[in-house]
Write a structure and sequence with these properties.
heterodimer, A: mainly alpha, MetI-like fold, about 85% helix, B: mainly alpha
Chain lengths: ~250, ~240
C-alpha cells in the first residue's frame, strides 16, 4: 500500500519536474506533459498525421511477417541442430558466436540488399527474433528426457514425428520463453530499422516529426508506438501464461 | 568438430564465390568473397581508425554503465523500500526499445561523440542494473546478520559481504553489457554519426559499395567476437580464483 503510494508520488514528481523543466527550456528541445496531451489528441484525431492508421498497419504487418519467419526458421534450425548431435556440436557454437555480435552491424548490408522498403525491416526483425527462438529450442531439447526419444524411436517414429510429437511438447515450457523474447526482439528490429531509414511506418513518421523539429508531435508519435509495443508484449504475456499452464 | 566447422565455412565461401563468378548473384549487392577480401586493402587504414573511434566511445560508455549499474544496483537492491518502489520501473525501462528516445537525445546532445556515449551507456546500464538488483536481493540473509552481529559497519557490509556475493551476476552483466554498449554506439553512429564504424558502414551502404561494406561489417563482427571471448576468458580465470 505504502509502496503503491510512493510509486504514485514518484511518477507525479517526475511529471512535475518534467513540466517545470520543459516550460523553462527551449520548446524545440523539450516538451512538457501539458503540451504533450494536445499533440496526442491532434495525432489521434488524425489532424497532425492523417496517415497514422496506415503507418501503424505497415509497422504491424512488418512485425508479423518478421516474427512468423523468425519462428518458422528458428524452429527448423533449432530442431535440426538439436536433434542431430554432430550438426549441433559443429554449428551450435558458431551460432552462439554470431549472437555475440551486436546485430545492428548487419543492418547496412540488409538495407543495401533489400532497399529502403519493408523488406529490409522484415529481414532485420527476422534476424533479431531468430536467435532467441533457435537458442530456446536448442536449450529445450537438451532438457528432454532421452528415454522418451528412445521409446518413440523404438516404436518406429521418424525424426520429424519424434520432433513434433515428443520433443516439442516436452520443450514447450522453455520454448514459450524464447518465443516471447523473440517477439520482443522482432518488434525492436522492425522499429530500429524504420528509424534508421524508411519511407513508411511509424519510424518514418517519428523521423519526419524529429527532422522538422515538431517535438510535441514526435513525443506523441513515440507514445503511440510505445502503446503498440506494450500492447504486443501484454498479448504475448497472456499467451505465454496460457501455454505454460497447459504444458504443466 | 573443428574440421567440420572449417570445411562448412570453406564450402559456403566457395559456393558464394562460384555463384558470384557465374553471374547468378548481382555483384552490386552480393560481391564475391575475393572482392570483399580485396576491399580490405583500400579501406584498411581508415576503417581501422573508425573502428578505434567506435571502440573508444564504447569503452567510455561501458565504464560509465558498469560503475553506475553496480553502484545503483547495490543501493536499490539493498534498501527494501527503494527496491519495492523502483524495481518495476527498472524492468519496464529495460524492456522498452531505447531507439524511440534516440531522436530526442540527438536533439539535446547534437551529432558526434556525446550522444553516442550517452546512448551506449544507456543501453549497457539496464542489464547490469537488473542483474545486480536481483543478486543483492538474493544474498543470503544469514551472511548479513552474522556480519552485523560481529559489528560490521555499513561500509564493511557493502564492501566485504554484498559486493563479493554478487560477483557472478556482475560478470554476467558485464558480458551482456559490452555487446549492448557497442550496439548503442553503432546505432547512434548510423543515425547521427560523423565518425566511427557505424557512420562508415552507413556511408558504404548509401554509396552501394558492397565489397567495402562487407569488409567493414566483417571487421566489426570480428572485433566484437574477440572482445566477448576475451571477457569470457577473464571471467573464467577470475571465477577459478574466487573458488
Amino acid at each position: 500500500m505504502t509502496v503503491a503510494l510512493v510509486r504514485l508520488g514518484l511518477v507525479a514528481a517526475v511529471l512535475l519536474a518534467w513540466e517545470v523543466a520543459g516550460r523553462a527550456a527551449n520548446p524545440l528541445l523539450a516538451v512538457p506533459p501539458s503540451a504533450t496531451l494536445p499533440a496526442l489528441r491532434e495525432l489521434l484525431l488524425l489532424r497532425s498525421y492523417p496517415d497514422l492508421g496506415a503507418s501503424l498497419l505497415v509497422t504491424l504487418r512488418e512485425i508479423a511477417t518478421a516474427y512468423a519467419l523468425a519462428v518458422a526458421v528458428g524452429l527448423a534450425v533449432g530442431g535440426t541442430l538439436g536433434m542431430n548431435r554432430l550438426l549441433g556440436r559443429a554449428y551450435g557454437p558458431m551460432l552462439a558466436a554470431l549472437y555475440a555480435v551486436p546485430a545492428v552491424v548487419w543492418y547496412p548490408s540488409l538495407m543495401l540488399f533489400f532497399g529502403l522498403d519493408a523488406a529490409s525491416k522484415i529481414a532485420f526483425g527476422f534476424l533479431l527474433g531468430f536467435f532467441p527462438v533457435t537458442l530456446a529450442v536448442l536449450a529445450g531439447i537438451r532438457q528432454v528426457n532421452p528415454h522418451l526419444v528412445t521409446v518413440a524411436k523404438s516404436y518406429g517414429a521418424g525424426p520429424l514425428t519424434v520432433f513434433g510429437r515428443v520433443v516439442l511438447p516436452a520443450t514447450l515450457f522453455t520454448l514459450v520463453g524464447g518465443l516471447r523474447t523473440g517477439l520482443a526482439l522482432s518488434v525492436i528490429g522492425v522499429i530500429v530499422g524504420e528509424i534508421l531509414g524508411s519511407k513508411r511506418g511509424m519510424g518514418a513518421l517519428i523521423n519526419h516529426a524529429y527532422g522538422l523539429l515538431r517535438t510535441a508531435d514526435y513525443v506523441a508519435l513515440v507514445l503511440v508506438t510505445l502503446a503498440l509495443i506494450v500492447g504486443t508484449d501484454v498479448v504475448a504475456g497472456l499467451v505465454e501464461r496460457k501455454a505454460r499452464a497447459w504444458s504443466e | 568438430m573443428r574440421g567440420l566447422q572449417l570445411v562448412s565455412v570453406l564450402a559456403l565461401l566457395s559456393a558464394w564465390e562460384g555463384a558470384a563468378r557465374a553471374g547468378w548473384a548481382d555483384p552490386l549487392f552480393v560481391p564475391a568473397p575475393s572482392a570483399v577480401a580485396r576491399a580490405f586493402g583500400p579501406i584498411g587504414g581508415p576503417a581501422l581508425a573508425a573502428l578505434g573511434d567506435t571502440l573508444g566511445k564504447t569503452a567510455i560508455a561501458y565504464v560509465l554503465s558498469m560503475v553506475l549499474g553496480v553502484a545503483a544496483g547495490l543501493a536499490v537492491g539493498s534498501i527494501r523500500l527503494l527496491r519495492d518502489v523502483l524495481n518495476p520501473f527498472v524492468v519496464a525501462l529495460y524492456g522498452i526499445p531505447k531507439i524511440l528516445v534516440l531522436p530526442w537525445i540527438v536533439l539535446l546532445l547534437g551529432y558526434g561523440t556525446a550522444p553516442a556515449i550517452f546512448y551506449g551507456a544507456l543501453h549497457g546500464l539496464f542489464p547490469v542494473l537488473v542483474l545486480v538488483i536481483g543478486a543483492v536481493r538474493d544474498v543470503d540473509r544469514t551472511l548479513v546478520t552474522v556480519a552485523r552481529s560481529y559489528g560490521a559497519t555499513t561500509w564493511q557490509l557493502y564492501w566485504k559481504v554484498l559486493l563479493p556475493a554478487i560477483v557472478p551476476s556482475v560478470f554476467a552483466g558485464m558480458r551482456l553489457g559490452i555487446v549492448f554498449c557497442l550496439l548503442g554506439v553503432l546505432v547512434v553512429e548510423m543515425f547521427a554519426g560523423i565518425r566511427g564504424m557505424g557512420y562508415v558502414m552507413g556511408a558504404f551502404a548509401n554509396g552501394f559499395q558492397a565489397p567495402e561494406l562487407f569488409a567493414a561489417t566483417g571487421l566489426v563482427s570480428a572485433a566484437s567476437i574477440a572482445i566477448v571471448l576475451a571477457l569470457d576468458h577473464v571471467s573464467e580465470r577470475l571465477s577459478h580464483w574466487r573458488g
